[in-house]
Amino acid sequence: MPWESVIGLEVHVQLRTDSKIFSGASTAFGAKPNVQACEVDIALPGVLPVMNRTAALMAVRFGLATGATVNRISVFARKNYFYPDLPKGYQISQYELPIVAGGQIEINTDDCRKKIGITRAHLEEDAGKLLHQEFEGRSGIDLNRAGIPLLEVVSEPDLRSPAEAVAYLKKLHTLVRYLEICDGNMQEGSFRCDANVSVRPAGETGLGTRCELKNLNSFRFIEKGLQFEIKRQIQLIEDGGQVAQETRLYDPDADLTRPMRGKEEAHDYRYFPDPDLPPLVVDDELLAAARSALPELPDARCHRFSSTYQVSQKDAELLTSDRELADYFEQTAAACGDSRSAANWITGEWMGCLNRDGLRFEESRVTPQMLGDLIAKINDNSISGKIAKEVFDGMWNGEGNASEIIAARNLEQITDADEIERAIDHVIDNCAEQVMQYRSGQEKVFGFLVGQVMQATGGKANPKMVNKILRNKLSGKRHN
Amino acid sequence: MSITKSAVERVAHLARIHIEPADIDKYALDLSQILDLVEQMNSVPTSEVEPLAHPQDIELRLRPDQVTEVNARERLQAVAPAAERGLYLVPRIIE
Hints:
- The complex is a heterodimer of chains A (480) and B (95).
- Chain A has 16 helices and 18 strands.
- By secondary structure, chain A is α+β, with helices and mostly antiparallel strands.
- In chain A, α1 packs across α5, α2 runs antiparallel to α3 and α10 (368-379) packs antiparallel against α11.
- Chain A has helices at residues 53-65, 162-178, 219-238, 263-266, 284-292, 298-308, 313-319, 323-336, 339-357, 368-379, 385-396, 402-408, 417-430, 432-439, 445-456, 463-474; strands at 3-14, 51-52, 69-70, 73-74, 76-80, 90-94, 100-101, 104-108, 113-125, 129-135, 138-142, 149-155, 191-201, 211-216, 246-251, 256-262, 272-273, 280-281.
- With 95 residues, chain B is α+β, with helices and mostly antiparallel strands.
- Chain B has three helices and three strands; from the N terminus they run ααβαββ.
- Chain B has helices spanning 5-14, 24-42, 73-78, and strands at residues 62-63, 83-84, 87-91.
- In chain B, α1 crosses α2.
- The longest helix of chain B is centred in the middle third of the chain and has 19 residues, at 24-42.
- Chain B is flat.
- Classes of the chains: A alpha+beta (480), B alpha+beta (95).
- At the A-B interface, β2, α1, β10, β11 and β18 of A face β1, α3 and β3 of B.
């Protein structure tokens, strides 16, 4: 029987504020334990939360970008649970009235284009970190993370495969980075994902019993974790069993999921409106501020790239998948006036080098101006495409810009016909045998002779001119 | 509406409140009476009334996003029951 999987995702987007959502402690990553955990964060008696305006602004910006309803009034609630990662005994979150409701994100997979609904996005505080290494039978807690603002983005169960789930996450990841509301760093936990997944016979409309999957900390783990879980559920049902509603943890080393805790009790959070916090009101001023800070969004930019820069849809999608990358492309294209070559160089050589060296876009030593100048040098025949790769490597290694490297290494293309002719004469003299073979009809020897000329000129001769002059010479004609 | 003994035990567990077994019946009765009161209030027609999230008619005050706190770990950990290497220590959590 064919099965269909139904997936909904909950993504915790860490908002890029300087201070916490309800206190003035710093949110900087990597500090020593508890040096950024003040009285409010560690829940000393008598403290009160005071809301960070920028966190609200960022949530509104997300709502506007996804076509959602921004609720003019939203309410903070206490989500009660006892765990030392939140010493108050509750997490301040939003429950019945979130700041953002409804909205959608369009995804693109190999099969189709599809709109994924966003049920809601609500503001809440992050919890601290529990260190499970032992301290004489006790656990240690670092509360630096407690109180960092999160936007929890909950999708509708609109996703039908692990591939769609990954496409949605990548799109969401791109979006929050465009909006500059999250740094998107998954290793540091700035963008975390839980998944709700169930299976049903294809064609049915009711939902099967779902499991919640946690510990999905990279796009690859998300895909693999979901694949495993879907297979597990199908197998279980086909063997006559039933899926139990539970929370499961993905173990990337073993590539499987394990039950974490009984869901029933863990989810008895007894929410109620937090009496410390009156309703959050998004007034016209806040709304206008969020609207004015909206950048050109990824979909619009992708559309513009493919229509005005004449790059392929695939390249346009790749180039707009990151705001810095898209900026880099536009600046390079402007510097050389050749958007297609700019796209080719960026998606090929440049990104290849970044990947190889494990660098981020902004860490590239080759600036858009430098890459644009290099492309211009190819286009005005100063250097060949092959030499350009050598020049690029020089720029990558910090040897300077294209002109400097070309001059220092004497790489300028030879376009002087007399000089090329001299090199060709030299080759013809030295390769009498191959010349004979060519003249007796063995066309493929021509390539060898071109190679000899290129070698004799250190790869600098203009290949088109070499071709033309050599052919003329071999057929007994004079060039020009 | 009546609250069962097991519901009392469950709520007590969720709230981490210790209760004497002998008192459970009394709690069950008390809580049931409170729910009866709520039930009585439920009979008031409120479909035209906006839900109230906060008893005072005020808005949330917003502060600018500025770091105002300095490292006070030493002072704060001085009153903690246990701390080591900068971490607060709690009874071991098994998961």
